[in-house]
């Protein structure tokens, strides 16, 4: 435990050093330096809080539907939401579903005690991979139940190795694990943890909720009218190098690209790949734009992608040639097949979409060509795969309500 605490100390120090020249690290340090001031100012005397912690934006989306289900069923409850990463906090710091939003302190014993002295916590919820020993031990010491939501485990993870003793001990303080699959349940049982329930992925409820609230986008609807549209979501250059040369050479197909990063350099890179094809940035469109005059639409703003997928026939999810794929369920919910790169092994939903023929892994330009051309040559196959993707999402409907009902709030 001492070695772990020393490691956390070095992490704090390293982040502070990096903040001198790295914007993300700087945002993290500035946010961390204001945690306790924020709590002193915003915690309401006499109230107890349900504490939700997510590492970043993706984990928040898995926990968000639980928060909103609790808000619906128990509007009297106070909610504290914390993030570890700036990519989560900076996007959701104004989230109206929580009463307080801030960073989580570094996992020191002193920080954990100070944090809980300031916030009377009723229950704590950690999303997916978030397991911080010092905070978990302090919660247990105070008799505050902690829950793991949408957690998923793999045999190679550190908590199942000889050097994961501290984390294993911390995991045993958690009151209940709501895990995504049976393998996770079995792995936990192998280290003596049996307080588990297999519930699937809470993101299914979230994407169903998003799809039900999808906004009308008249310009995109006009662009997609009477056309087959290939939608690339959260793409990176390694993805764009593959699909851009392919798709626009296919007669009768148009393309919408919503890149993960929308800085000018990346947008120019995409435009260079498009060459002479007729393309336009979404931000450059007027309300009377002739959308039928374009072959490709580049989405250079955030917040539209989840509504845009419904205008597509096929979706490509970016990140599979880098750190890992982005949200496949966001597209699959609309009943369209999803294509993604090879770095998808850590993503249960991607593997299961492959198994049900709703998702397709590609490893290079040739495999993408073979997959896409099969959709083009066999419209009935395309429809069948899209139906499989949509049914996969629907199969996990209701997960969030089942979790909330079991919490006895």
Q: Specify the overall morphology.
A: globular
Question: What portion of residues belong to β-strands?
Answer: 15-25%
Largest beta sheet, briefly? 7 strands, parallel
Summed up, the helix count is: 19
Give the gist of this structure.
The protein is α/β, with parallel strands linked by helices. It contains 19 helices and 14 strands. Helix 7 packs parallel to helix 8 (165-171).
Question: Can you describe what's shown?
Answer:
The protein has helices at residues 2-18, 23-33, 35-42, 57-73, 86-92, 109-118, 133-141, 165-171, 182-190, 203-212, 218-224, 237-247, 264-274, 305-308, 329-332, 348-355, 365-377, 379-394, 399-406, and strands spanning 49-54, 78-83, 100-103, 121-127, 146-151, 176-179, 196-198, 228-235, 253-259, 279-281, 296-298, 314-317, 338-340, 359-361. 41% of the residues are buried. The protein has a seven-stranded parallel sheet with strand order 3-2-1-4-5-6-7, with helices on both faces. Strands 10-11-9-8-12-13-14 form a seven-stranded parallel sheet, with helices on both faces. With 409 residues, it is α/β, with parallel strands linked by helices. β8 (228-235), α12 (237-247) and β9 form a beta-alpha-beta unit. The protein is globular, with a radius of gyration of 23 Å.
